[in-house]
Here is the input.
Amino acid sequence: MSTVAATGVVVPDAAARSAASRGALYPAPARRRRRGRGNHDAGWGTYVMLLVTAALFIAPFYYMIVAASRPMSEMVQSPPPLTPGPYLWDNITTALEQQNIAKAIANSFLVSGVVTVATLLLCTLAGFAFAKLRFKGKKFLFTLTLGTMMIPTTLGVVPLYMVMAEFNLTGNLLSVILPTLVTAFGVFFMRQYLIQSLPDELIEAARVDGATSLRTFWSIVLPIARPGMAVLGMLTFMTAWNDFFWPVITLNSSNPTVQVALNNLGSGYVPDTAIIMAGTLVGTVPVIIVFLLFGRQIVGGIIAGAVKG
Amino acid sequence: MTATVSAPNPPAASADPGRPAPPPRHRGLRGLLFRWEAKSAPYVYIAPFFLVFAAFGLFPLLYTAWVSLFEFRLNSEMTWVGLDNFVWLFTNEAFYNALFKTITIGILSTVPQLMLALGLAHLLNYNMRGRTLFRVSMIMPYATSVAASTLVFAQLFGRDGGFANWTLSLVGLDAIDWRNGDISAQIAIAVIVTWRWTGYNALIYLAGMQSIPQDRYEAAQIDGANRWQQFVHITLPGLRPTILFTIVVSTIGATQLFGEPLLFGGGTPNGGAVNQYQTLGLFMYQQGWEFGSLGRAAAVAWVTFLLIVVLVLINALIMRLRTRERLSDGGSE
Amino acid sequence: MFTARRSAGATAVIMAGALTLTACSGSSEASDPTTGANGETVLTVSLFGTFGLDEAGLFDQYEAENEGITIQYESTQGEDKYWPALQTKLNSGSGTADIQGIEVARIADVVTNQADLWTDLSQTVAADRVGDYVDWKADAATTTDGKVLGLGTDIGPMGLCYRTDLYDAAGLPSDPEELKQRLGSWDDVIALAEEYKANAPEGSAFFDSAGGLYNAIVSTESEIYYNAAGELVVENNAAVKDAFMKSAAAGQSGLTAKLEQFKDPSWDAGFGSGTFATIACPSWMIGYIKGKAGDAGSGQWNITELPGGQGGNWGGAYLGIPEASKNKEEAAKLIAWLTDAEQQAKVFEVGGNFPSNTEAFDDVADSTDEYFNDAPTGEIFSASAQSAPTQILGVGDGVAKNALTQALLSVEVNGVSPEDAWANGISKITNQLG
Here is the structure.
């Protein structure tokens, strides 16, 4: 079974041809899986290195739990405590009383979800066009796309707010969603990914067989793009979830995202770090749970997508 | 610029992208429609990006350019000053300091970050138990909020009783005042940047590695290549477009570096008492938001923009030269 | 197994649905926020994290006492994030709350440059209140043509906080009365610091930072960075340079712990661990010390007047109404009530923010603080507030103060000579403000 056939494509000619032409260059992907990865089982050294790295990456998150479960004053002692204290629930309760974090989490899921889905679809389309299609002005338009990535954004908030005020969107979740629906980063990423992973002859074969470019996209490009899309989706979701600078300006605490709600926690002349950490924990854990629950689908898709489609 | 950025196709995709397309089989009206679709589709695909950019990116960009010609505080009168803001910038020691610090911190953080990410991705590509868990852990630094990372790294690099100094004391070294030293503060920031972005890049590399056909490894194995040789001769060339992507993105990120040094300084854009870690991003932020001089900040933004363009061009040029070298060596990979 | 076709189609549907959803929820959100569902008036209040109004239960109380009023309150943690957002909103003329907090370092900018963006409170029901505050506080919020753009909440009268246990260990007098007798001038304080250094516990310095010392000294001055005509005078202000050099010398000779205030995590830790024994103490610092030193620090600290009983001020804030507000009258009523003596006294009880309303001084005069060995905090801070000079606030105060504080830090930790540091600081100030 070839990649293309497995997607249930409705252009049998193209499928057969491309599978044939592919076969000459590659072994069939199914074989790739059966034989391939087995040759590269990880040794104990790999496990050790990965365990150490994972520990380093997770440690600050653990420390956040420690800080959220002790009074602020204990965290500034030296040496600081390394084990969780007894106040986790108290601090979380206080944080939840101060801000409507449940609504913020719902809003953040909405914003990040919409942004992620839109980014995946639109950036893959544009990336495909820049990577594999021929059209006039392609070089110029791609250069322009890259160019927009290089614009420093910290100042953009003043004019962006003016634009949103013009559209009457300030305070509205759309003001956070719209500007990030499709990003130059995503377009560039998908272009590079497809240049590397999508053989030209697949596209040509489909074209010869009379498939429109949209059909080619749907049935050939998307399946091959899936590993790249999986990673882009994860990164986009996290970026949207943690986006801070602009949402804090445009949204307010009556309709916040998580980061906006957190920004309003623990006020007073002494920002109470314990409450802030407890709130941060509540605001971060849902994402982590989603990644863990769907990790196999999201990250696992990196492998599976290339094979099964 | 595009030409330099579009890396050569990986060897597997040996078809010549420049050859003329074979004519489609359809004739008549359907054929016309078909050809029309093929011609217009690319523009439709890239249109959403340009629409969003036109709606929300273009005006801020032009506004910033316009404002850089004024003395401008929010909610005060604007005064036309022509190029004075740029003159001020190029005669300002603090600007050159920020430029220099951006470059040193950029090199200190980007190079190890990308190399580590490549190694990590290679390891994650093996067959193993708990693969999903390991991969999800890669995104953890990026998922941990900035506030939480601040707390941790402030503690880690604290002068009195921080872990870094505690470790030094174990091997008999004196405590370091990390945040107030010059090199030490830059190293600390590079560590934070590396921690935050290594897993991010590793995932990107990992996705790229999945698209390298397995049979090339098998063939290499038959030829007696060890794992390292396979990595150098198959993985690296196969990843070229992805590597190019991460280099360009990291270069842009390093030039705009802002969040981590701000966080390290406790939320102020001073970048230390003698501005020892004030990056261009911090310098611009300080002008615009601490001092309220938006005109000057806009000038910094434009100069930063041009700097990035130059850096990306240099990057691409180096890549291209190396490709030529490789080809003139016989292109044996 | 999902096919690519189906999943992609599904995502498109989900996306369209979600967009509609946000559009709907957005439009309901955007419906006129000035009146609520039952016709009651909704007042929005947006502050940064140092007011203590909500913590003292004032908003709930006001809602209970005034039927038909609902208060929507939000508070941003850091003023450095709050102010840019507020400026952006003011600039576009939309999105500001009915009542906005203004930090004292920003009031000169508001009065000088933004008079047309804020409501003149002397033309509202809050007008009767204007005379109730310490003179300089009200003056600073009044434009040259007599518009009052903000009413004062708290001020920051000064004292010196010190660790009795560390003073005892070093053989210094730890009784506040005794200290008061010894400290007639800042030079006396420096002399005491030298004495402390000679017998101090290991790893402990007298002051926390040269910058903190400097800010305490200049807080007693009337003319600091600007003169009454609004001209930048710091370069030739002998009092400022003197304070700078005194502090720099202290930093150079090891009398400070070399910890940047509010930014260095080791500074926070120092309140408990005792890396420093003395800190210049605006009234709001009391709460900070309690938070950072925790329960373990109770009874270790005490507080006395600035040397020679000088008065001074560091910090404080205002409440103002943006011109764009649609509920000016109701907002003015709320401001007048919030800054009334009774309410300010309550905020002091709860959070330690010292009243700017002179009538409240009597209410707080008897306050003592158990944590600080029952020190008469009310008496000390009232005295400081009453004898404080009328401070002239300028548009660039924040920039100037930051530049000189950083310059002092560079003397402490980067080995820059005091003369060079002063020159650097001044050149930064003139580069930015000149």
Notes: The CA atoms of residues 25 and 31 of chain B lie 8 Å apart. The interface with chain C takes residues 73-77, 92, 94, 154-155, 158-162, 177, 179-180, 182, 265-268, 270, 273-274, 276, 289-293 of chain B (CB under 8 Å). Chain B has one domain: 86-328.
